[in-house]
């Protein structure tokens, strides 16, 4: 891999290649093959816009040439912070065709997170929308660029839409058009992709439990297998139509099997601009969608809307639910409501993906979070001393395999504790394994709140709470919530009256934090309880909030 970091051993790599998991093909080359094999088949749909596989292949050339004209080179990192729109896919494949590396960011990230990603990855460019959800991303990028200064790595900002009055911001459409002009504009096959399929293909974000997110390096070989293995479990083929409801930057939406798995099967990807059931159901009717993926908070909304009986959802065969644990009663209602098979998905951007199978018994589908996608996924469930526990006993999930990372990007110190000496990733998830191999998620060791699939690092929010003039101590805990799976409660020690949730949210936003990290509830306490070793007793705080 490019960048110095732990990777698979030569023996493991040879074994994965011999098993057919790693096929030695870059994403730029894969799209070239698909453009020839499925030339006139519809690959991508966004509103009234449609691209065949041949169109998508040609667009990748245009975007790659336009980026190259800006000065973006093979190996350069480029942050993609786009909402659900076709331009995310076009930019992603354009970067792959050029051999540059997309860094997935979320639409809700703000200056603190984007600045961190640019610095950590040395990104030379960012691709953003003009306005999304009434937020001006151009202003955000202007602020980030000013903070990084003239000597910072960020040289280019590409805007989908109106670039506004900002000096040097490039419209995405103009970049495409510049890449499509002239006889030498298209990128040739020999110049199209990183020559090493084991090289860095993209960077995903970790959930981040100790502050700002870490970057997860994925190779062409391992990430393609991630998508293909999930596509195999979901039985995708050229007739499959996947509806992307959740953000495209999520690993779940993009490759489990998601966008990549569908395209690698020769199917069609349909992009939903928002996750509302009304928007999604209209697209399911119009496009004959066969598969989609949700997070648990969306499930009751979709179930309620389906009960209206106003929609023809007959094409929908499978509904995946992941990102957080799905309550059993919601799982049992969802399938009959939509007339589709429910599939639970439990995984991580670091690698391992577990899915219930389409032929699993109903009880397994409704009460477990699936089993590994690959026969070569290795699973250990261990106690606090690292000793394996029997099936049915809760313990920490450790894993390694053909698509699970061996080290975070530029995080040598963290890697020493995040992995065992023999390469197992310490997930921090507490699970029980059944004799069938299915996993039941019990909780987490890591200090992280999972609010409807959004991972909130408690330490980061606590540090920012302390910047409020009234707050002298703070602890953020997650408590069970029927809608979100978990909601975040901030226990604060204050001088005077505690600020309300709205004031705290505004303060955190002014500090550059994403909106979803703001606490759902603020509770003023005279002091924070401590454990016997002097640490904040968050278990006691959680019990207090639940009670």
Overview of this structure, please?
With 547 residues, this protein is of the alpha/beta class. It folds into three domains: 27-196, 3-Layer(aba) Sandwich (Rossmann fold); 221-444, ANL, N-terminal domain (Rossmann fold), CATH 3.40.50; 449-546, ANL, C-terminal domain (GMP Synthetase, Chain A, domain 3, 2-Layer Sandwich). A nine-stranded mixed beta sheet has the order 2-1-13-12-14-15-16-17-18, sandwiched between helices. Strands 4-3-5-8-9 form a five-stranded parallel beta sheet, sandwiched between helices. α2 (27-37) runs antiparallel to α3 (53-70) and α3 (53-70) packs across α7. The longest helix has 18 residues, at 53-70. 53% of the residues are buried.
The CATH superfamily of the largest domain bears the name ANL, N-terminal domain
CATH architecture of the largest domain: 3-Layer(aba) Sandwich
CATH class of the largest domain: Alpha Beta
**Unreliable residue runs:** 189-194
Overall mean pLDDT: 93
Largest sheet: 9 strands, mixed
Report the CATH topology name of the largest domain.
Rossmann fold
Total count of helical runs of at least 4 residues: 18
Distance between the termini: 50 Å
Tell me the count of domains: 3
Q: How would you classify the helix and strand content by structural class?
A: alpha/beta
Strand content: 15-25%
Helix content estimate? 25-40%
């Amino acid at each position: 891999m490019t960048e110095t970091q732990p990777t698979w051993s030569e023996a493991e790599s040879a074994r994965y290649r011999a098993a057919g998991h790693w096929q030695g093909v870059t994403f730029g080359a894969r799209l070239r093959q698909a453009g020839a094999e499925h030339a006139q088949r519809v690959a991508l749909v966004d509103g009234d816009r449609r691209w065949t596989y041949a169109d998508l292949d040609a667009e990748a050339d245009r975007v790659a040439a336009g980026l190259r004209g800006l000065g973006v080179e093979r190996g350069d990192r480029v942050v993609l912070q786009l909402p659900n729109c076709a331009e995310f896919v076009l930019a992603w494949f354009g970067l792959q065709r050029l051999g540059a590396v997309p860094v997935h960011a979320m639409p809700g990230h703000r200056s603190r997170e984007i600045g961190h990603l640019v610095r950590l990855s040395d990104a030379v460019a960012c691709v953003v929308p003009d306005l999304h959800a009434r937020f001006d991303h151009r202003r955000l990028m202007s602020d980030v660029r000013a903070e990084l200064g003239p000597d910072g790595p960020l040289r280019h900002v590409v805007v989908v839409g109106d670039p506004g009055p900002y000096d040097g911001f490039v419209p995405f459409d103009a970049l495409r058009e510049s890449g499509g002009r002239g006889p030498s504009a298209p990128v040739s096959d020999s110049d199209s992709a990183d020559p090493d399929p084991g090289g860095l293909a993209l960077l995903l974000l970790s959930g981040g439990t100790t502050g700002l997110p870490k970057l997860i390096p994925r190779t062409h070989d391992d990430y393609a297998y991630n998508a293909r293995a999930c596509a195999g479990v979901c039985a995708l083929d050229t007739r499959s139509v996947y509806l992307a409801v959740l953000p495209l930057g999520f690993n779940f939406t993009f490759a489990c099997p998601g966008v990549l798995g569908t395209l690698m099967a020769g199917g069609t990807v349909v992009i939903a601009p928002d996750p509302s059931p009304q928007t999604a159901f209209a697209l399911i009717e119009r496009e004959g969608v066969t598969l989609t993926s949700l997070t648990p908070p969306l499930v009751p909304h979709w179930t309620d809307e389906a009960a209206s009986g106003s929609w023809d959802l007959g094409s929908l065969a499978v509904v995946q639910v992941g990102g957080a644990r799905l309550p059993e009663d919601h799982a049992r209602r969802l399938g009959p409501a939509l007339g589709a098979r429910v599939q639970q998905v439990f995984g991580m951007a670091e690698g391992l993906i577990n899915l219930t199978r389409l032929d699993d018994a109903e009880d397994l589908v409704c009460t477990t979070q699936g089993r590994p996608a690959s026969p070569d996924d290795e699973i250990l469930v261990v106690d606090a001393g690292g000793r394996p526990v029997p099936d049915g006993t809760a313990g920490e999930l450790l894993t390694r395999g053909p698509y699970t990372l061996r080290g975070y990007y530029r995080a040598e110190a963290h890697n020493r504790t995040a992995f065992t000496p023999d390469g197992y990733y310490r997930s921090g998830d507490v699970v029980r394994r059944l004799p069938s191999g299915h996993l039941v998620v019990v909780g987490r060791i890591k200090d992280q709140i999972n609010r409807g699939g959004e991972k909130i690092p408690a330490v980061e929010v606590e540090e920012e709470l302390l910047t409020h003039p009234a707050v002298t101590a703070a602890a953020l805990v997650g408590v069970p919530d029927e809608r979100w799976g978990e909601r975040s409660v901030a226990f604060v020690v204050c001088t005077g009256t505690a600020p309300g949730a709205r004031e705290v949210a505004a303060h955190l936003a002014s500090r550059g934090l994403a909106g979803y990290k703001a606490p759902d509830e603020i509770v003023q306490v005279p002091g924070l309880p401590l454990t016997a070793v002097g640490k904040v007793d968050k278990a006691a705080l959680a019990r207090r909030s639940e009670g």
